[in-house]
């Protein structure tokens, strides 16, 4: 594949698509909102944000087309499937301790952004990945397409079960289908065989990739949109979540022997962080040799670049429909991902790039400030109140996140001066200014098969992001930092109380970090 030609064409499609005769008058009209949400997409997974070797020309263009937050975060999770909590926070605008349990179910008292915008006359559309309950899906959106993640999952981007929109919200397994190529190369629907094998065994010869399916559904929505009402679209891609599959042309862009490992690459994590052995960490052999980590990073970058191409098509389709002029575009990811950083592969931690640091971009014609990089702290559950403020829609009383509009309007430099992070009963972190304190404990754990056990280590880490953004040098043992650590510990405990960090606030949680600290 001619990569130079690919990027020239991709950027041309992104930047030069004509608005055509369908361009709308935006004066006094409520804005459309497009929320692009990617899966396991760390902050440094966009070239323009961190300068890494991943190729993302279309996402780079979004960064230049608006305001990007350098310090946007997932607060944490009480399950290894951190995307469950992350998406529940995004949907409800509430922090991780205010969800119902780990975030699978969303109570009717927690208004979702779909409900809030529906009440103001919006058509709300969901496309792609869904991790919450069916009732919440039904009440949050007026329509949907290519729903995935409703109980039937084959761990394969090329053989993904999808569902048509079901107004009743049932999404029964027998209604799922996948998309395959027929003998003429045409995409057709096919019932999923009962004996379908799980695992990443598909290729681009079988059928279209999830990113292609989800992106094309968005383009079709824009093309066929006839309503006079504004729309809110929740476009939830499954990529770059594993299995890290991409068409061969994109894999060829990243020769394994030419991959550069990140500054935080390690053969093995230096201690037990409480959740070292789970599905994500089983994706690669121990120790994480340079060859192992380079292969994983190559696959990760390939699926991101393929995703980027589909996002480029989505933006081009939005422009071609005439809707771009009046659409706020929000792009974010649900979590970071280690892929070799600190000797880890997954996101079950609260290091920045490995677990909680995510891209957050507000872009499009309606964002008048272009190419701005903002250092203010933000969480992904701040997106909900921000889009409400932007669209001049009342923020529901159940929302506890903070609107970022004062920052976008240059009226304030920040809406919070610190961040707090939690992973299960094993890890807590507190970030203020350039410093981040991470505390680990050795605690009890429970597994249905294994019963009760003990895991984790009592460890303290201190990092300075001004000099060490990849968290490679632990400063906690230097005597000169003793007073700083004590002050940060004090403030972290105060934040825990303010946020409600106790097991009683996480229904079903057996253990409390603070009982072991």
Automatic annotation (TrEMBL):
<keyword id="KW-0732">Signal</keyword>
<dbReference type="GO" id="GO:0004065">
    <property type="term" value="F:arylsulfatase activity"/>
</dbReference>
<protein>
    <submittedName>
        <fullName>Arylsulfatase</fullName>
    </submittedName>
</protein>
<dbReference type="InterPro" id="IPR050738">
    <property type="entry name" value="Sulfatase"/>
</dbReference>
<dbReference type="InterPro" id="IPR017850">
    <property type="entry name" value="Alkaline_phosphatase_core_sf"/>
</dbReference>
<dbReference type="Pfam" id="PF00884">
    <property type="entry name" value="Sulfatase"/>
</dbReference>
<comment type="similarity">
    <text>Belongs to the sulfatase family.</text>
</comment>
<keyword id="KW-0479">Metal-binding</keyword>
<feature type="signal peptide">
    <location>
        <begin position="1"/>
        <end position="23"/>
    </location>
</feature>
<dbReference type="InterPro" id="IPR024607">
    <property type="entry name" value="Sulfatase_CS"/>
</dbReference>
<keyword id="KW-0106">Calcium</keyword>
<dbReference type="GO" id="GO:0046872">
    <property type="term" value="F:metal ion binding"/>
</dbReference>
<feature type="domain" description="Sulfatase N-terminal">
    <location>
        <begin position="31"/>
        <end position="392"/>
    </location>
</feature>
<dbReference type="InterPro" id="IPR000917">
    <property type="entry name" value="Sulfatase_N"/>
</dbReference>
<keyword id="KW-0378">Hydrolase</keyword>
């Amino acid at each position: 594949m001619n990569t130079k030609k690919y990027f020239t064409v991709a950027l041309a499609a992104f930047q030069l698509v004509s608005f055509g005769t369908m361009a709308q008058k935006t004066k006094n009209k409520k804005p459309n909102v497009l929320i692009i949400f990617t899966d396991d997409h760390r902050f440094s997974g966009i070239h323009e944000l961190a300068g890494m070797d991943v190729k993302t020309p279309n996402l780079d263009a979004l960064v230049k087309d608006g305001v990007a937050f350098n310090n946007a975060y997932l607060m944490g999770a009480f399950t290894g499937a951190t995307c469950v909590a992350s998406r529940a926070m995004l949907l409800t605008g509430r922090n991780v301790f205010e969800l119902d349990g780990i975030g699978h179910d969303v109570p009717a008292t927690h208004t979702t952004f779909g409900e809030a915008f529906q009440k103001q006359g919006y058509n709300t559309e969901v496309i792609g990945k869904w991790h919450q309950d069916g009732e919440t899906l039904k009440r949050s959106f007026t329509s949907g397409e290519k729903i995935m993640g409703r109980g039937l999952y084959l761990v394969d981007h090329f053989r993904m079960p999808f569902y048509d929109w079901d107004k009743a919200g049932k999404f029964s397994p027998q209604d799922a289908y996948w998309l395959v190529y027929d003998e003429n190369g045409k995409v057709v629907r096919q019932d999923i065989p009962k004996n379908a094998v799980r695992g990443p065994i598909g290729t681009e010869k079988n059928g279209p990739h999830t990113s292609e399916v989800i992106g094309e559904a968005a383009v079709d929505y824009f093309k066929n949109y006839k309503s006079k009402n504004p729309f809110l679209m929740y476009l939830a891609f499954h990529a770059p979540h594993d299995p890290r599959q991409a068409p061969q042309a994109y894999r060829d862009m990243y020769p394994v022997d030419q991959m550069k490992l990140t500054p935080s690459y390690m053969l093995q994590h230096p201690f037990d962080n409480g959740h070292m052995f789970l599905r994500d960490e089983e994706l690669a052999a121990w120790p994480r040799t340079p060859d192992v980590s380079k292969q994983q990073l190559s696959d990760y970058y390939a699926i991101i670049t393929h995703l980027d191409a589909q996002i480029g098509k989505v933006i081009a389709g939005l422009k071609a429909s005439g809707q771009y002029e009046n659409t706020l575009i929000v792009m974010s990811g649900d979590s970071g991902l280690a892929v070799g950083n600190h000797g880890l592969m997954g996101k079950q931690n609260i290091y920045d790039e490995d677990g909680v640091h995510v891209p957050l971009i507000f872009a499009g014609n309606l964002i008048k400030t272009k190419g701005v990089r903002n250092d203010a702290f933000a969480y992904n559950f701040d997106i909900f109140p921000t889009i409400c403020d932007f669209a001049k829609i009342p923020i529901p009383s159940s929302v506890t996140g903070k609107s970022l509009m004062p920052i976008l309007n240059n009226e304030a430099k920040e809406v919070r001066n610190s961040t707090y992070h939690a992973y299960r009963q094993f890890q807590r972190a507190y970030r203020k200014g350039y410093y981040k304190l991470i505390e680990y404990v050795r605690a009890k754990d429970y597994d249905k098969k294994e019963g009760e056990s003990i895991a984790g280590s009592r460890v303290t880490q201190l990092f300075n992001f001004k000099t060490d953004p990849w968290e490679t040098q632990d400063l906690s043992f230097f005597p000169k930092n003793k007073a700083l650590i004590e002050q940060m510990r004090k403030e972290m405990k105060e934040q825990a109380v303010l946020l409600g960090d106790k097991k009683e606030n996480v229904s079903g949680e057996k253990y409390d970090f603070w009982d072991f600290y």
